[in-house]
Amino acid sequence: MSFWGQTFEITRVDLRVERRLGDTLRIVLPFAVVALMVFPLSLGIELAVISRIGPAVFWALGILFGMQVALRQSVADTQERRDLHALLGVDPAARFVGRMMSGSVLMLAFLVVLFIAMVLLYGPILPSGSWSTVLIATVLFSLGLAELGTLAGEVTAGLRNRIALASLIVAPLALPLVIGASQSLEALSRGAGILPWILLMLATDLALAVVGVGLARPLEEATR
Amino acid sequence: MDPLVHLEDAGVSLGGKPVLRHVDFELQPGQVVGIAGPNGSGKTTLIRVLTTLLRIGEGAGSVLGADINSDQVFGVRSSIGMIGHTPALIGELTLLENLVHIARLGGVAEERVDSVLEVVGLDEASDRRADASSFGMRRRIEVAHLLLSKPRLVLLDEATSGLDDSARELINALRDRTVMDGGGVVMVSHDQKQLAETCEEVMVLTSGRVESVQ
């Protein structure tokens, strides 16, 4: 089977498992929406403040709950399944890309619903053209966080306290993504250019992809 | 004829502790070799070495012609089949979906999946989720996988424990077919008597060392 055949098969199966389990949409998302409601409830009817903080709260909750989505799949991978894939001749880089793709799809779905909920609850004043910026930022943010989650899962494979260790890896490395995503919207509202922030996220995504694909084989061999 | 597996003075340490020491092992095409020994004697570690998923720290060896400590092993792994302690299935998928997934990744024609399911007696239960299936059923799917992929080297690590007679017969049939096709089989068990009945040679491990070869 070709590299891309293996990649799409892993993505397909991951998404099918998610459809049956519903971890992301049935468990993580409702909690994220509830967390989104905390701010308007605690600030009362200060609509101007609520409207102003909406995008910031969205990105804050996006990274907090998004990390759970990002790490969920990779830590669910058992040693037996990793061994099976190795004995089937699956390219570790294809595993990485396949996992990253399924994680990105889930993350994107999660963030899109969270963004809609934020717009409904906070009523932010978004300048014209902001929808396309939000979409680009969300796609790049999802991609990067999924890459980080997959990479952290590979690095911590076979270790005790995988989730805690993987979170420690993801949190600091996600900073460029959080800064890029939040600042792109902020720049738009100030009438400033968004290109530097989009490029920051793009560069982070590309760097993570190169590291993930390049280290897939050595990591798989080293973590057995 | 080149051996399928050849290990010479092989040693493995895990976490700084020696788990296998000075192990010599050879498997010829068409041969069935057993590995026996008490718990913690290094049987499963040796099996992992034979899968090429675990490298040896000392000694030398080859599996299916590939130097065991080199990147050559990546090219032969798909010719190695293993049934381990825990069936490596995805619980949320049905038994059929698991087998199709394995067949696709292994580059095996999906058309054969239905007939192999019939052979292992799961054609009626193939839509059952793996996590809702019995251990024996999941084991049968692993046998089905090896019947599909026809590996040259089959490693059976306590593969028959906890199985009923018909499932045991399936594993025996898999073993016999591999041997007939010129492959080799390594069987691991606590039960030395059972191994002696089915294997041409039985190696007994104790504390990571070869105690005897019968």
Q: What oligomerization state is this entry in?
A: heterodimer
Continuous helix count of chain A: 9
Average pLDDT of chain A works out at 87
Which architecture of the domain at 5-88 and 152-213 in chain B does the CATH hierarchy give at level 2?
3-Layer(aba) Sandwich
Q: What is the terminal separation of chain A in angstroms?
A: 24 Å
Main attributes of the structure:
heterodimer, A: 224 residues, mainly alpha, elongated, B: alpha/beta, Rossmann fold, six-stranded mixed sheet, 31% helix, globular
Describe the 3D structure.
- The complex is a heterodimer of chains A (224) and B (214).
- Chain A has 224 residues and is mostly helical.
- Chain A has one domain (3-222).
- Helix content of chain A is 86%, strand content 0%.
- Chain A is built from 9 helices and no strands.
- In chain A, helix 1 (3-21) packs across helix 5 (92-122), helix 6 (130-155) packs across helix 7 and helix 8 (175-190) runs antiparallel to helix 9.
- The longest helix of chain A has 31 residues, at 92-122.
- The mean pLDDT of chain A is 87.
- With 214 residues, chain B is an alpha/beta fold.
- A 6-stranded mixed sheet of chain B has the order 6-7-8-3-9-10, sandwiched between helices.
- In chain B, helix 2 runs parallel beside helix 4 (135-149) and helix 4 runs parallel beside helix 5.
- The model of chain B has no long low-confidence stretch (mean pLDDT 89).
- Classes of the chains: A mainly alpha (224), B alpha/beta (214).
